Amino acid sequence: MNVLEALRSKVWLSAGLLLIGLLLLPFLVEAGLGKSWVRILDFALLYIMLALGLNIVVGYAGLLDLGYVAFYAVGAYCWALLASPHFGLNLPFWMILPMGAALAALFGVLLGAPTLRLRGDYLAIVTLGFGEIIRIFMNNLNSPVNITNGPQGITQIEPVSLFGFSLGKTQEVFGLTLSSPHLYYYLFLVCVALVVFVSMRLENSRIGRAWVAIREDEMAAAASGINTRNVKLLAFAMGATFGGLSGGLFASFQGFVSPESFNLMESIMILAMIVLGGMGNIWGVILGAILVTMIPEALRYTGDLQRALFGQVYVDPADLRMLLFGIALVLMMIFRPAGLLPSKQRKRELAEEAP
Amino acid sequence: MKDLLRVEAVSKHFGGIKALTDVSFTVRKGEIFGVIGPNGAGKTTLFNALTGLYQPDSGAIELDGVSLYRRKPHQILKTGFARTFQNIRLFHNMTALENVMVGRHTRTTSGVLAALLHTAHNRKEERDCAAYAMQLLNRVGIGKHAHSLAKNLSYGDQRRLEIARALASEPKLLALDEPAAGMNPNEKNALRELMVSLRSEGLTLMLIEHDVKLVMGICDRLVVLDYGEKIAEGTPETVRHDPKVIAAYLGAEVAA
Amino acid sequence: MDIFAQQLVNGLVLGSVYALVALGYTLVYGILELINFAHGETTMMGAMISLAVIGALFGVAPDLPGIVIVLTGLLVAIPSCMLLGYGIERVAYRPLRHAPRLAPLITAIGLSIVLQNVAMLIWGKQYIAFPTTLLPQGRHEIFGATITDVQIMILVLTVTLMAGLVTMVNRSRLGRAMRATAQAPAVAQLMGVNINAVISATFVIGAGLAAIAGVMVSANYGQAHYHMGFLLGLKAFSAAVLGGIGNLTGAMLGGMLLGIIEALGAGYIGDLTGGFLGSHYQDIFAFMVLILVLTLKPSGLLGSKSVERA
Description:
The complex is a heterotrimer. Chain B is of the alpha/beta class.
């Protein structure tokens, strides 16, 4: 066996171990931390998809989008409207999911088009404005024609179901009893793998290089033959597609959507995942998404801690989490601007001095 | 020799300031064509107007019979007109090789789907693109830095990398905006050799340069701008003795 | 009652608040070309601090004249916010002055979150009422519209502050240093201008105006809330962009215009869309204005500085 083969078998071995670990993870988590943590795990996977989507727009193409949650909302509402008693529809998931993703991509292009000439911080504010406009419409499109059911949101959304096998209830698989969060975990895991695969392939492609070139110097990119308008729109569309996909999955998993789930803070959280993890680096972004999802849950225990120490809860742990994120964002930018896991070779936009 | 670039009565103003007024000249196939003039004469503005970074107000620009007037920069590049920048504009956080590969954007076609599926065509294209880029890096003499980040290259190497990136698009005409600025005599010589060898391969070059010795020594013909207007055009010999040019700025330095 | 005249009055009052906050954005942008994302929260802090002082004073000495109590609140809020503005610049922006543009934007977002949550931890999640009885309660009729004493006070104070600011920027030594720094920071520095001091002063002035605006808005609506700064800041920013960011007159004009657009828009949107959209869409006008201006005329109504990348 030569060195290359040895190396290859080593890679396969670690990949195999990783896969087994990921498959067993929900059982370990349930045994170690309790049932509710399997749901948290599911959300972490959803956020990984969202963060990787935003990473294409912000990390690769350098377009600071603060209204990203709008695409998540579009995907979620698309599913909610087409698979719930609200309109009495129940389309199969293999139809709705692509529809939601495509619709989100369309929104990505529509919202991206007017912003193409704008520079970083203006782009951020305009996209933020778009995100808020979409939320205002979701909140108010319940009259005169009831489309979104307003602030009450849409309930009783159908879960993912394939050939009559519903992920919404406990099922027996190969003799194992799997609850709904377990089932969704495996679905989301497949989706995350897909999104990671797409990100990796795009990163090392002609289009990926064009995105990074635009981020680095838009004028030089144009002078190098890149149609900056189309390539930027493509970034918006790809990012939005991931957002729409995650949105659809979120609606089916949660069974309920309302405008409250899609506020500005959600966009900022997704941005925080990228910034903390390491902008432009797939593994950094994944780490960021996991941390940002898990830490607030862990902070819940500070309530118990407060009670143990002071006999009462002074600060609601849920309130504490946003405060900590705010502080973390500031500190990260000042002391470790490239994130926890910066791309090895490229410190990317935030690491270097301005030209 | 045939004409390659025809520039006719191109004007550009910013607010009330006339940056270019009715500038006309032609660049012939296979020559090195100089653009000179005192600071603020409008040389870089001319390059920007020709390559689509500024929209000219009026005039006509044709490359090999194709109009470039008011086309987008990427369309102009595709027609065969590549350029470099006075204040080096590289993709700093990409490797030298990747910079040149970006330069091949118009000569490659793979889209999102091809990249996702890793089609045979896509894989071949990526391989060929990298090989071509590597060849160009060697050509300009920085092959050993292929995997360094552009921002970590020395100043002279960054200039060369920019030329390699521009060459990657296989242009008919390459416009260099002060390529020798800040270079030491050795680097200048290497640059001169590179330009001459590119010309011998049939490439046409345009050159903005402050180093009068370099310009006069290498250019086949020149155009001289002053306050956004053309004041002379011709061989270095005729331009050198043109009283208008001497008056405008060359002065004793060239006449001597 | 004439709806048009009434909405015009409401719009002018609302516009005064936007204009004062917009001045803060535009002052900072003029000098640093940076959007001070946390400026809306400074306004909120101004409102909350003044309300806390007013509430405490009213509790201790209810016999004091109402106007004295409110003025005391204002006089505490202004320096507090100035200090806050100074701190924001030192913590979030100065360390990143030469960093890429995304970096200060992200610290600013982080700081906004921090300020909001600090306010929430101190004052809670509920709305805090402004004791409106402290201020004169008069109502006047002009051109078929009703205008309250508080609204008149807001308009007068705004005009006075604007006149003062313009005089300061055009006549005073500090104003001259500010204009020089905005034009060419490096040259200004060579000429002996202390750039850091000028930048700090700019933040401090902007924050002082924001504090006053915060008190005004809570007096006008009779309440304040830890979350009020976000939307207010965003709208004021839109106003600054509408007028031409970096331009003082533009910020005032943009603020007034946006206030009027919003008030009239909210009053007539139902009629305009055949009843399809109602007045709860009021908040989208600012965003629409922002998006339209930035896409059609990024330099705004009076701006000369190009917003686009050169």
